[in-house]
Amino acid sequence: MIKEQAAVDFLKSQIIEFPETAIILGSGLGGLVDEIDIEKRIPYSEIPHFPVVTVEGHGGDLIFGDLEGVAVLAMNGRFHYYEGYDMADVVFPLRVMKLIGIKRLVITNAAGGLNEDFEVGDLMLIEDMISLLPENPLRGKNSEEFGPRFPDMSEPFDLDWLEKAKSAAIRLGVKLRTGTYIGLQGPKLETKAEIRYCRIIGGDAVGMSTVPEVIAVNHMGLKVLGISVITNESIPKVAKEFTHADVVATANKAGKKLVELVKNIL
Ligand SMILES: O=P(O)(O)O[C@H]1O[C@H](CO)[C@@H](O)[C@H]1O
Ligand SMILES: Nc1nc2[nH]cnc2c(=O)[nH]1
């Protein structure tokens, strides 16, 4: 809390009025920033205790501005457990968001498709999630100021927002899949047997982020929506080696649809 408060005090010295809506931009999805009428861009390196981005395709700044008439905070670049950060670091920015008054959050990510009906470039609304990460951001003494010891997670994503997202996709003519996101530790990719396992337990898409963030914001009572861009087939139909560069390139392209959808939802 002390660390979060130092970051909050710094941000208060930079920003007069904070927005209530935030967006986390996943791998290759920084293009949404171009749509924001930017009031202030603050590099993570200037914010006390903020972690440092180490993954290609992730920017490293907080952007305050206006997206289609809505005041937003965009987190341009996120932190993953596999980078070596503690879970407390991974969710640090979200706790700072809570303290500056963010009420609702759209989380985006790049993910591998497990569902065989999905195609590369599809968008998937995350209706539910499974944590296969070895850790959880709420382990340890509970911070009562953030939320309860045992937060309910039976509806991790806001039902009203899910409905709005589906309607927006229909209006825009954007194909929007729905499904369950599985969060793994990474950074290694999955073996074929692991993919089969992920399918059997009910996953539609797989990635290495989002789950800790959703747990932290559910704990704090923020409204959350999650959207994955399916950047690759987890088992390619035509043999093809996974590269993060392909993930970023595909996310960049499909990101345009995502931007339209997010603008409409907000
Ligand atoms: O989830 P985001 O941050 O979008 O990134 C996804 O893309 C990377 C792998 O290419 C992993 O970090 C995975 O989690
Ligand atoms: N674990 C995992 N993360 C991803 N991020 C983007 N694609 C993938 C994938 O296929 N597997």
Q: What does this entry look like structurally?
A:
The chain is an alpha/beta fold and 266 residues long. It has one domain (2-265): 3-Layer(aba) Sandwich (Rossmann fold), CATH 3.40.50. It contains seven helices and nine strands. It has helices spanning 2-14, 87-90, 92-100, 159-172, 192-200, 211-219, 244-265; strands at 21-25, 37-43, 61-67, 70-76, 104-113, 123-131, 176-183, 205-207, 223-233. A five-stranded mixed β-barrel has the order 5-8-7-6-9. 45% of the residues are buried. The model has no long low-confidence stretch (mean pLDDT 95). The site of 1-O-phosphono-alpha-D-ribofuranose has 13 residues, from strand 5 and helix 7. Residues 26-27, 55, 78, 80, 109-110, 186, 207-209, 244, 247 line the site of 1-O-phosphono-alpha-D-ribofuranose. Its EC number is 2.4.2.1. Residues 22-266 form the Nucleoside phosphorylase domain. Phosphate binds at residues 27, 58, 78-80, 110, 209.
